[in-house]
C-alpha cells in the first residue's frame, strides 16, 4: 500500500481549552494572548475563538487592535503549561492510530498510514471521536498522499472538518486555491506573485520554472514549482516531539534598561525550558525588536545537547548583548530553543 498522510490540527486550540474549562465562556468571543490593558496593551493575539474571529480578530494581530474590534470579548492570558498538558493527551490518542507519527507543534501532528483511502477516512473519524470524547475538543483533519496536501486539506474545512484528497484529485483540489494556502508562501511572496498576476495555485502551476527561479532564487523557485503540482516527498520526522519551544515578551513601554531586559529574559528562559522536562535541545535563539519595529534574530548551536535553564539563559544573554545599545529602545524580546535530541 502506498503511504497516506493525515494532518491533524486542533481548532482554535488555546481558546478551545479555555472554553472547555470555563463554561461561563460559552457563547462569548474569547481572545487568548497578551493583556489588552483597556486598549493600551502592546502584545499580540495568540488564538481567537471562532466567535471572536467574526469580529475580524485573528492570531498575530496586535492586542490593542483586537480590543478595539471587540472590547467586550473575554481576554485571557496564555497558559502554556495547561495547553502542553492537554496536548500530550491528544498526541497520545493520535500517535497510536498510525505507523509513523510526527508532532509539528503543540496542536498539530502528522500520521502516516499504509491503508486504503476509505480506511484512512474511517481512522480519521475515530481519532476525531476519541479526542471529542476524552478531551471534549474538536480538530480538523486532512488526508492526502503527502504532508503538503494533507496540511492544506486540514485547513480546508474548519472547525471539526475532515477533507480527503486522493492522488487523482490533488490537482483539481489545489488549482482554485489562493497561493497563500501553500505552506511557506507568506504575505511577502503572495504580494510578489500578485504583482505578476499570479493569485491561484492554477496560475502558479502555469508559471515556468525558470521564471520562478529568477524571481525567488533556485531553492524557493523550485519549491513553489513542485508545491503547485502537489509534489512533496518529505518524510515524517518521528524523532522530534516538537520543532521548537519559545516565548516572546512585549514591554509595556519601550526600554533600554538592561536589568529589566535581563529580568524578562530570565523569566522567559524558565518558562521555555522548565516545561520541556527531560527533553534536551541544542540550539538557542533570540529575537529582538526595536521601537521602530526593526527586528533581528541571532542563534547559537551548542556542541552538546542541553536541558539546562542556566545554560540557555547564559547563551541568550550573550546573543542579546550586541543589540543592547544606550540610544536604542527595545519593544520586544523573544527566546526559543530547538534541535531536540
Ligand atoms: Mg490549530
Please, could you describe this protein's structure?
About 40% of the residues lie in helices and about 25% in strands. By secondary structure, the protein is an alpha+beta fold. It folds into four domains: about 90 residues, 2-Layer Sandwich (Alpha-Beta Plaits); about 60 residues, 3-Layer(aba) Sandwich (MutS, DNA mismatch repair protein, domain I); about 55 residues, 5' to 3' exonuclease, C-terminal subdomain (DNA polymerase, domain 1, Orthogonal Bundle); about 100 residues, Dna Ligase, domain 1. It has a five-stranded mixed sheet. A four-stranded antiparallel sheet has the order 9-12-10-11, with helices on one face. Strands 3-2-4 form a three-stranded mixed sheet. The model has no long low-confidence stretch (mean pLDDT about 95). It binds magnesium ion (MG). Magnesium ion (MG) binds next to strand 1.
- Would you tell me the structural class of the helices and strands? alpha+beta
- The chain-level mean pLDDT equals 93
Number of helical runs? 12
How helix-rich are the residues, as a percent range?
A: 25-40%
Termini gap: 31 Å
Globular, elongated, flat, extended or rod-shaped: what is the shape? Answer: globular
Taken together, the total number of domains comes to 4
Written as H for each helix and E for each strand, in order along the chain, the element string is EHEEHHEHEEHEHEHHHHEHEEHE
CATH fold type of the largest domain = Dna Ligase, domain 1
The portion of residues forming beta strands comes to: 15-25%
The CATH homologous superfamily of the largest domain is named: DNA polymerase, Y-family, little finger domain
* Uncertain stretches: none
Amino acid at each position: 500500500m502506498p503511504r497516506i498522510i493525515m494532518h491533524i490540527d486542533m481548532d482554535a486550540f488555546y481558546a478551545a481549552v479555555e472554553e472547555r474549562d470555563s463554561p461561563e465562556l460559552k457563547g462569548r468571543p474569547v481572545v487568548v494572548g497578551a493583556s489588552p490593558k483597556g486598549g493600551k496593551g502592546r502584545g499580540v493575539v495568540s488564538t481567537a475563538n471562532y466567535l471572536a474571529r467574526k469580529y475580524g480578530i485573528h492570531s498575530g494581530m496586535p492586542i490593542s487592535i483586537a480590543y478595539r474590534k471587540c472590547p467586550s470579548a473575554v481576554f485571557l492570558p496564555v497558559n502554556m503549561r495547561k495547553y502542553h498538558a492537554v496536548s500530550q493527551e491528544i498526541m497520545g490518542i493520535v500517535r497510536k492510530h498510525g505507523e509513523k507519527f510526527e508532532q509539528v507543534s503543540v496542536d498539530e501532528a502528522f500520521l502516516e498510514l499504509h491503508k486504503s483511502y476509505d480506511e484512512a477516512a474511517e481512522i480519521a473519524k475515530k481519532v476525531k471521536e476519541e479526542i471529542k470524547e476524552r478531551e471534549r475538543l474538536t480538530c480538523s483533519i486532512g488526508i492526502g498522499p503527502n504532508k503538503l496536501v494533507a496540511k492544506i486539506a486540514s485547513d480546508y474545512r474548519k472547525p471539526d472538518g475532515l477533507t480527503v484528497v486522493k492522488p487523482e484529485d490533488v490537482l483539481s483540489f489545489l488549482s482554485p486555491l489562493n497561493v497563500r494556502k501553500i505552506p511557506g508562501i507568506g504575505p511577502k511572496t503572495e504580494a510578489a506573485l500578485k504583482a505578476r498576476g499570479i493569485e491561484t495555485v492554477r496560475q502558479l502551476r502555469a508559471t515556468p520554472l525558470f521564471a520562478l527561479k529568477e524571481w525567488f532564487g533556485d531553492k524557493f523557485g523550485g519549491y513553489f514549482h513542485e508545491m503547485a503540482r502537489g509534489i512533496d516527498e518529505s518524510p515524517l520526522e518521528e524523532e522530534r516531539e516538537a520543532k521548537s519551544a519559545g516565548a516572546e515578551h512585549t514591554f509595556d513601554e519601550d526600554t533600554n534598561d538592561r536589568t529589566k531586559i535581563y529580568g524578562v529574559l530570565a523569566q522567559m528562559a524558565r518558562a521555555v525550558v522548565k516545561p520541556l522536562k527531560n527533553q534536551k535541545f541544542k540550539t538557542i535563539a533570540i529575537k529582538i525588536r526595536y521601537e521602530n519595529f526593526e527586528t533581528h534574530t541571532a542563534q547559537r548551536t551548542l556542541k552538546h545537547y542541553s536541558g539546562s535553564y542556566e545554560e540557555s539563559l547564559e547563551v541568550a544573554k550573550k546573543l542579546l548583548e550586541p543589540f543592547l545599545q544606550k540610544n536604542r529602545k527595545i519593544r520586544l524580546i523573544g527566546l526559543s530553543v530547538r534541535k531536540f535530541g
